[in-house]
Amino acid sequence: MKGAEIHTSKGIMKVKFYEEDAPKNVANFIHLAETGFYNGLTFHRVIPNFVIQGGCPLGTGAGGPGYTVDCELDGENQYHDRGVLSMAHAGRNTGGSQFFICMNRRSTQHLDRHHTCFGKVYEGLEVIDQIRQGDIIDKIIITEI
User: Which residues are CB-neighbours of 51 under 8 A, at least 6 positions away?
Assistant: First the structure.
């Protein structure tokens, strides 16, 4: 099973991927991480008690990798909860590199089956609450779990 370590100045978040639920989105994230796409990018959007969002090469929320990835919304794990990684998009099937991590279930459940959940933080959950807008993603390392 594949996973990732998201390294930040506030700590490391260890993630396990939902490879069966969202194979295209997981493969896309792994590809971008392995090519260093995320290194040095910021968490450009932080909304307390909602989400932390990163992966925009422009740092504004308007950028992406230059292509899109289809939504995968039918799997078993397609519900937003604390620590879930989900693809940000500007409408169905427009995701690319931007992702968000949920802070809780209560304020994110309306996103279920609208945004693709592709993994979950299983260690370092406390880091989510410490991230502030502008904090940097030092690097993302793909791992075997």
Answer: 45, 100, 101, 102, 103, 108
- Tell me the longest C-alpha to C-alpha distance in the chain: 35
Here the CATH number for the domain that contains residue 26 is 2.40.100.10
In whole angstroms, what is the distance from residue 21 CA to residue 24 CA? 9
The H-or-E segment that residue 135 falls in is none
> For residue 65, what are its two tokens?
């990798």
In this structure, are residues 101 and 83 in contact, taking their beta carbons and an 8 Å threshold? yes
Tens digits of residue pLDDT in 69-109: 999 999 999 999 999 999 999 999 999 999 999 999 999 99
Residue numbers of the domain that contains 53: 2-144
pTM for this one?
A: 0.97
